[in-house]
Amino acid sequence: MKDGMKQRDYYFDNVKFILILLVVVSHAIRPMLNESDLLKTLYLTMFSFHMPLFILIAGYFAKNFRKPEQNKKILVTIFIPYVIFQTLYLVFDYVLYRPSEWNGSIFDPYWIMWFLLSLFLWRLILPYFIQLKHPLILSVILAILIGYVSDADDFLSLSRTVAFFPFFLAGFYLKRHHFEKLFSPWKRVTAVLGLIGITAFLYYLEFHSPLGLSIRKWLYFVFPYEEVGHGEWYAGVHRLFFYGLAVLSSIFVLTLIPQRKSIISRWGARSLYVYVWHGFFIEIYKALDLKDILPSPYQHVVIMAGAVLLTCFLASNFVQKITRPLVQPRLEWLFQKNNR
Asked: How far is CA 242 from CA 84, 202, 250, 282, 285, in A?
């Protein structure tokens, strides 16, 4: 390797592939959750960490915000792809479902597009927020308080932007050596047992707990407490609890992911392609009720296998080549050259 070239860290590519795979699988099985307690429990387990951890990794790679032209970079790599795919999804939704009214807005993200808009906002406010005293603690306080705001809606993805910001900020402050502490055989055994324990605990909370918590809604970190059925003054404690659960399950998952380069490393490097494209396939699958044409005993397995294959396809070099102008547009022509 040439001097001065930074070696790619394949561990994080592996992490991103595993996470985007679970995102696609969870979206694929969502229409079937009421058909199986086991399936719903697996879904809850995946949701306990996949987006918090995805956002934490995004924060980890936001450390270069002080480099020149970073605002231009986040505009080109995050906001413009958001505008492109937000528009595509709105048109697609209108063609697919034919709503009686057009309610599309560039500032009201369509389903999965919230992540790109929130990521753009996180990157914008990061340089200013970290100048405050105790920014991580402050972000958690704000994330808890936003749950009390009953009219915090999807405009600018406000609720999710605030609620998930602590994970982004935590990732920003993490260093590579923090991840190194996770890797040892006995810690991997602990992680396996820990994930099994969390899965069992979520099963209990969902199906047998007298607390009456709607676990899925709590794990989305988007609904106001009142909408989840807990408008009490202490409802923020519930969100704090699920933050802790997300941190714990994320640590267990990070411990289990391999560090070496493999085929999933290449796919993980293209996780953005999977994220922005998979929604079209999921919406078609839901609109046509394709799950109903499958034989019942194998339905869940076939759908999950299909989600895995879809993820691998969307992460392929083929998809990257033909869709790069939309996902990673080259827009140097938009900006004036610096002639200094």
From this structure: 33, 11, 12, 27, 31
Q: Which long-range contacts (CB under 8 A, 24 or more apart) does 302-309 make?
A: 303/28, 303/29, 303/32, 304/25, 304/28, 304/29, 306/28, 307/21, 307/24, 307/25, 307/27, 307/28, 307/29, 308/21, 308/24, 308/25
Dist. CA 318–CA 164, nearest whole Å = 33
Encoded amino acid at 47, one letter: F
Distance, in Å, from the CA atom of 326 to the CA atom of 76, rounded to the nearest integer, reads: 11
Separation between Cα atoms, residue 340 and residue 174, nearest integer Å = 36
The separation between CA 162 and the C-alpha centre of its own chain, rounded to angstroms, equals 14
Angle between helices 50-60 and 114-129 (to 10 degrees): 40
Q: What is the pLDDT of residues 154-213, one digit of tens each?
A: 788 999 999 999 999 999 999 999 999 999 999 999 999 999 999 999 999 999 987 778
Q: What are the residue boundaries of the structural domains of the chain, listed by start?
A: 10-329
What is the tens place of the pLDDT at every residue in 37-63?
999 999 999 999 999 999 999 999 999
- What are the tokens at 192? 């396996």
Give the residue among 315, 277, 253, 283 at the shortest CA–CA distance from 54.
Answer: 253
* Phi, psi torsion values for 229, nearest 5 degrees: 95, 15
Q: pLDDT tens digit string along 51-97?
A: 999 999 999 999 988 777 788 889 999 999 999 999 999 999 999 88
Q: What mean pLDDT is predicted for residues 3-27?
A: 88
Residue type present at position 13: D
Dist. CA 285–CA 279, nearest whole Å: 10
Model confidence over 262-321: pLDDT tens digits? 999 999 999 999 999 999 999 999 998 877 777 666 788 999 999 999 999 999 999 999
Q: Of 14, 11, 8, 27, whose CA–CA distance to 280 is shortest?
A: 27
Q: How big is the chain, counted in residues?
A: 340
> What tokens were used for 14?
């592996």
